[in-house]
Amino acid sequence: MKDDPFNFIDSLPWSEVAHAYGVATDAPSQLRCLISADVDEREDAVHGFLYSSVFHQYSLYSATPFVMQSVLKLLEWHDLPKQAGSTCVGSIAYELLHFIRMCAECGQRSVQGPPHASAPTIENVARSGLEAYRKYATHEEANVRAEANALLTWVELREPVFPRIPKPSIAMPPKPRHSSLEFLSAVWPLLVAMIVPPLSVFFRQPWIGIIILIGITLAYKRWWTCVFGLLNFIALAVGVVNCFLFAIQLLR
Predict the structure, then answer these.
(1) Is the pTM of this model over 0.85?
(2) Which of 188, 192, 233, 191 has the alpha carbon at shortest distance from 212?
(3) What are the tens digits of pLDDT across the range 51-80?
(4) What are the structural domain ranges in the chain?
């Protein structure tokens, strides 16, 4: 088994490099979250760190090559957990390989500001992952194999620049927006909270109503918005209280 990759990660000069939101001192903890047992922590680390701080709208930063090196260490690690990724498209290995490929596609030309004196170029970091790419080139998941083989082919062919993914030449017309549907999609917890308690009373099943409303409340990441989040939460809380009061009446 290879050495713990976090010994390497903790040794990097994070306080001397930056990402899109400032000094990259949060990198070690965020990199640990990539292999967390908690899916929400993995999701935040992938989308909030890799694809927001380190790789931000196709811009790279002085911290990016060190994060890439760290990600490759995780990929090479024997104990990399076989956990679902942040978007359920495959294992966390897919998320990490995809990040490396996207950085390689942008290349050193996309780095904002001066690089750290000890940092390798984006292309050189991507080329250094040959062992990891070979390891995942025969992975059981097709999307992992695709990412690994794309990187492996680029390294073995010794191409100077990673080819960009072809983009459609014809722009698709924007879909019409329906304000009423957008409003309903934002306040659906409120509507559910208005419907469930009366149905619970009618069918004399308050506990089912309580379970439904508490379940929606706990899944707040699926519906919370800055505009209607608090309103939805209050409606759900009132609905739960109403169901509880009806349940108490039934028990008397």
Answers:
(1) no
(2) 192
(3) 999 999 899 999 999 999 999 999 998 767
(4) 5-157, 179-251
